[in-house]
Amino acid sequence: MSDREFDVVVFGASGFVGRLTALYLAEHAPAGTKIALAGRSESKLARIRGELPAPAGEWPLIIADTNDAAALQEMAGRTRVVCTTVGPYLRYGEGLVAACADAGTDYVDLTGEVPFVRRCIDEFADRATASGARIVHSCGFDSVPSDLGAYVLHKKVQEDGAGELTGTTMVVRKLRGGVSGGTIDSMRVIAQQASDPAVRRVLGNPHALSTGPGERARVKRSEEPGDMALVDASKVDPGLSGTLAPFFMASHNTRIVRRSNALLDGAYGSDFHYGETMAVGRTPVVSTVVAGAVSAGTALFLGAMAIKPVRSVLDRILPKAGEGPNEQTREQGHFTTETYTTTTTGARYRSRFRAQGDPGYKATAVMLGESALSLALHRDALPERAGVLTPATAMGDVLVDRLRAAGVDLAVDRVG
């Protein structure tokens, strides 16, 4: 990799989140980091480059299209890392993953599409392992807080000699920001493909990313928390009260966390199971009503997205890919997640992941940018692992340290 022309190529740099990621790298990448911008339109890339701070003024432009295999292969061969924001990945992503897997090039994306990750595992894991490529999915708000929240819990419990993780639950404590147009577009594609029974089986399987041919689930499917269940907060931790609502991205994030545990050979614990929720108040009656409404509303929305005439109506009012909030809204956004666990020795721990900026936009650009820099600049410190990976298993402590240095509050403490 020492002879690669670039450290990082941002593919999709003229898109909304791609531009934010390029801006973050221009402002925060160490001096001397070799970065290029890539996409379909040279004129759009040149315009974006001209709007970026001075260090980006000399960044080369690469013209590549998701339908042009030769261009993707050439691009992948020129860089250590491809950082892509071009989704929905089910529609546009496979060709780039294939090019990176064959070229031994590390790859990071923002996918929240379980069927896409499953397809990449099946089609490209062996090729990536053979070439040494790290194919790392879900490096934004989906699913870095989830994945690293569980990872740092495991590390702290291990350091304390406090046993293994058992029931573990992430609680979204605070969330201010809009749903990204890219996420909505991914939901559209998944809804369209869900008419295929094979896709529905993947979507309904809590171990969709941690079991496959020759693999065995470590915990029974029935023991995994339901993605749409209401949860008594006191059962997550005695210090919590009220009823917790389902978190709308749990169906993806939980699969990523379970895959991390599988790739780490079950290091989190033989009885580790994981769920995600959202705090909607402490008062039992009020929080139960609100949590029920959130659950019903989420189910109704997902069901509506699967009905073509209804989806057509929603398409007129929902944000589209490439759209996003203004700078003030992005700056005012923030989120806090807390992940609770009880260990096999009865000890209780909590991790916290807190960041400023709209979760789906500014904060995601930070997480994606730092993921790309972790792979490009810290290769000697990374885990010796290749294939189709997760943020925790590909980058681990390197990403934790870089995010903390970037201002993310990522901490662990024992609570009982």
From TrEMBL:
Please cite one Gene Ontology biological process associated with this protein: glycolipid biosynthetic process
**Residue ranges of every copy of the Saccharopine dehydrogenase NADP binding domain listed in the record:** 8-133
Q: Could you list the residue ranges forming a coiled coil in this record? A: none
Which Gene3D superfamilies does this chain map to? Answer: NAD(P)-binding Rossmann-like Domain
Write out the ranges of the annotated region (Disordered). Answer: 321-341
Superkingdom of the source species? Bacteria
Q: Which InterPro entries match?
A: NAD(P)-bd_dom_sf, Saccharopine_DH-like_oxidrdct, Sacchrp_dh_NADP-bd
Q: Name one GO cellular component term.
A: plasma membrane
Q: What name does the UniProt record give this protein?
A: Short subunit dehydrogenase-like uncharacterized protein
